[in-house]
Design goal:
Length: 122
Amino acid sequence: MNSDELKDRLKKFSLRIAKLVDAMPTNSLTSVTIAHQIIRSGTSPAANYRAACIAKSDKDFLNKLKMVEEELDETLHWLEMIVDCGILPEKRMEDIQQENKELLSIIVKSIITTRRNLESKK
């Protein structure tokens, strides 16, 4: 997958998160609190990856990828909390959780590759 394809996939993920938040009930403090958390963590990976793509150096690129990894991991936590708290049914959450895991895996592999490349330059 090239960087433009990953940018697009992360953007689509952000849009799915936004739609998910819009579908969450607003009559519960728990739901509203989680909605605020996940809209932030679930939309930032796309923006952070775009920033990584224009990084000034390989180290800068690596640091920005780590931010993407952290935000995707946090988003996965909030997706699990939505199910665990009974806010939305597990069946409705399966596809977006799977996409989150796949994106996280891609980013982790990119981090490993970038670290390896940095080590080989030393």
